[in-house]
Design a protein that fits this description.
heterodimer, A: 115 residues, 7-stranded mixed β-sheet, 4-stranded antiparallel β-sheet, 11 strands, 0% helix, B: 111 residues, mainly beta, globular
């Protein structure tokens, strides 16, 4: 089945220690997104890629970076995690038309804990 | 900017009873509205969307939603709730590439 895969599902890191979260997709979608979701809150968009074009949200901290080496993979790098970065990180993809009607499909998420 | 609001933090219903989760929207232009469900420690699962056409939209797992332009609402409904429907539900509106979510409604279905 076509899907969005995130690894790892759970990650514990220490304050200030860099961490990388991974997302892959078999949907062949052009657009990939990273959302941050804090405890039972609504997801908040960090950035997205349309193909290789990177689009950062204005309020995304500089501490958060992303890479998309090819269509299938996208990575979220947190350079110096703080305690406030403890959250669920959700990857999503949407189709190639660029239409507002395109559905975003989410992966299972990576729960990150910063100690 | 586009936005949605979910006026209820929690909804509690008995199994077998109808379930309604409320959502109101504020958009300029045509609304593109979505419902997602999230189970504990899981990602968001797409339920249904309204783009245009029929005001009653049918989705996954027996859910449907009614788009009401005059009341700017897009309420999610299920005629007969199951215990397994207990989860966190999000309404969302699409603006450019971004989904803007409501605060979420926790649904508890008791046996």
């Amino acid at each position: 089945d076509a899907m969005v895969i995130q690894n790892p599902r759970y990650q514990v890191t220490q304050f200030g220690k860099p961490v990388t979260l991974s997302c892959s997709q078999t949907l062949n979608h052009n657009v990939m997104y990273w959302y941050q979701q804090k405890s039972s809150q609504a997801p908040k968009l960090l950035f997205h890629y349309y193909d290789k074009d990177f689009n950062n949200e204005a309020d995304t901290p500089d501490n958060f970076q992303s890479r998309r080496p090819n269509t299938s993979f996208c990575f979220l790098d947190i350079r110096s995690p703080g305690l406030g970065d403890t959250a669920m990180y959700l990857c999503a993809t949407s189709g190639a038309t660029g239409s507002l009607a395109d559905t975003q499909y989410f992966g299972p998420g990576t729960r990150l804990t910063v100690l | 900017a586009q936005s949605v609001a979910q006026p209820e933090d929690q909804v509690n219903v008995a199994e077998g009873n109808p379930l309604t989760v409320k959502c109101t929207y504020s958009v300029s232009g045509n609304p593109y509205l979505f419902w997602y469900v999230q189970y504990p420690n899981r990602g968001l699962q797409f339920l249904l969307k309204y783009i245009t056409g029929d005001n009653l939209v049918k989705g996954s797992y027996g859910f449907e939603a009614e788009f009401n332009k005059s009341q700017t609402s897009f309420h999610l409904k299920k005629p007969s709730a199951l215990v397994s429907d207990s989860a966190l539900y999000f309404c969302a509106v699409r603006e450019t590439y971004k989904l803007s979510f409501g605060a979420g409604t926790t649904v508890t279905v008791r046996a």
